[in-house]
Amino acid sequence: MSAFKNLPTAPIATKKPVQDTRHGITRTDDYAWFRADNWQAMFKDTSILDPEIRTHLEAENAYMEAAMEDTKALQKTLFAEMRGRIKEDDTSVPVKDGPYAYGTSFVTGGEQPRYFRQPRDGGEQALLLDGDKEAEGKGYFRLSGLDHCSDHSLGIWGYDDKGSEYFTLKVRDLETLEDRGDVLENTGGGGVWAPDGKSFFYTLQDENHRPSKIFHHILGEPQSQDRLVYEEKDPGFFMSVGGSLLDDFIYIDIHDHETSEYRLLSTKDLLAEPAIVAPRQTGLEYSMTEGGDVFYILTNADGAKDFKIMEAPVNAPGRENWKDVVPHRPGTLILSHLAFARHLVWLERHEGLPRIIVRDRKSGEQHEIAFAEEAYSLGLSGAAEYDTDVIRFSYSSMTTPSQLYDYDMATRARTLLKTQEVPSGHNIDDYVTRRVFAPAHDGERVPVTLLYRKDTPLDGSAPCLLYGYGAYGISIPAGFNTNCLSLADRGFVYAIAHIRGGKEKGYAWYENGKMEKKTNTFKDFIAAADYLNQEKFTSYANIVAEGGSAGGMLMGAVANMAPEKFGGIIAAVPFVDVLNTMLDDTLPLTPPEWNEWGNPIESADFYRLLASYSPYDNVGAQAYPPILALSGLTDPRVTYWEPTKWVAKLREKTTGSAPILLRTNMGAGHGGASGRFQRLEEIAFEYAFAIKVAGKM
Questions:
Q1: 1 falls in which pLDDT band (50, 70, 90)?
Q2: Which of 128, 146, 306, 621 has the fewest CB atoms below 10 angstroms from its CB?
Q3: pTM above the 0.85 mark?
Q4: Which of 257, 402, 670, 674 is catalytic?
Q5: Active-site residue among 226, 257, 635, 674?
Q6: Is 389 among the catalytic positions?
Q7: Annotated catalytic residue within 397, 549, 631, 674
Q8: Chain centroid to CA 376: how far?
């Protein structure tokens, strides 16, 4: 392609054919060798990576650098623009909890957050944890947070310094700021304090990177002496541990993508066996929050596809005692719920837009918090205290910077606490945000959120970055993103396709984009491209598609299905080797994901289904557009060998001349770089690729 000239010879991966026969079907994988046999150990020590694999990844990085060499100045410009929109010395609005209010801040030039507290009603801030100091000398560093105990004397904090998502936990004295001797390895990243502050509960990640065990740690004891509270034997389930606002219960939340089970431990007897609330029943989902003498339960029980809220007595929370509180309303999806002393609050989505509903627990009277824009995002953060009338929520749109409000549920008064500051300036009136609907292959209407400058010509000439995800029921909010302004200011239309597989239009929108209906996700995305081309927001040659992780699978699928409809494709940590990954039950996410994609080990039908769309297995002899794949060496979610194999096969099969690029971050995992500005460098790189492909350098 004309945007890429005088490139060196691209790396050619060695073929080492491996045959695999399942259900009477034999496949040959020429690039299976990229999966290192010692991958589990390598995630903790990257120096033991097979030298042949390392040499190939470094060659790919060198080729990518050569292809993108002429964008170096543009990358620096983009980075400066994006950094200029971030308030460097920013401070959160502290959250009140007992005698203190807790918050986070950044210093000018700082990559990592600092955790602080101050007197409840204002006063001098006391620094509790300095992320920049803890990150010194480390190539990768990510904090998992700081959780204080009930008397505010101690805090649990965690960090990952490899990108592998194995977190180390430490306990800090919040007065002296010294860490105690308690050091816990290979955890999920957080802990839940017992009310007396002498012990806490945490999840342990096993050798396959699954949170399979909950332990109880007593301060001062070695980790080897920690008591096993619960072990989940089914590798298909995720597990986490949490606590109630009233400190009455420890919650053990066990779930996969369609089934839930809660186990409760009363903090009055920490040595008791956790009690099951409702035994797991395939297809039954529920989550709990405490409301004093009752639990409020958000569930899809009794056919409530878009969920309803029920209640049960705290002393008898079994399924047989659940009673409706907020009935099921088809088409109105309840996303989350919170309970406080006098109010029940939930976040729901109706007609693709979010709203917050507040109900008086005594009178039953309820009201909603909503906004008037065509597309917007709401976040419900609630409060850290149970006995309060004041909750916190955030609001933004593609054009409106984030606004943080305190909301008095009794008086209905909103107090604007903070508006996201854009130091380099942002004029809302310069931009347009729209919500349009693209007709899908089967008559469904796919919502697409658009952002562009008012002076952008809508005659088909504008370049477009079209983003999609479409999996796990995750909805992509139409919120404010300062980074994409760098594209809009260069004449791009920035578009988000809210395709099936998410829950933007209710639970059915998710169901119709998973398992046997997964291909709807891909067809919806192509329909969005068709609509934007037809309505002259852009044209096929000007569309750069982008997606990451499961959205990277989407990128691989549409590249195979309709390569001519995209001028370029960016696939970040892309889940593209779908069939092989779902056949490998040693991988961290494989058993839990069978409910999303199907189990090809047990089912010949699902084997054939996955084989029919798995991007790696369907790379064909056709002309592909320029493709940029991004990978992380220590990524436990989408392992580095998936994009590596995919790029090797694309380069082998393509009949075109457009470059296929692979960039592997040799010191990071699924989330990419860990610092706030390091992450901007990665986004600037991706945007530079899009701008180069679109011919707008």
A1: very low
A2: 621
A3: yes
A4: 670
A5: 635
A6: no
A7: 549
A8: 19
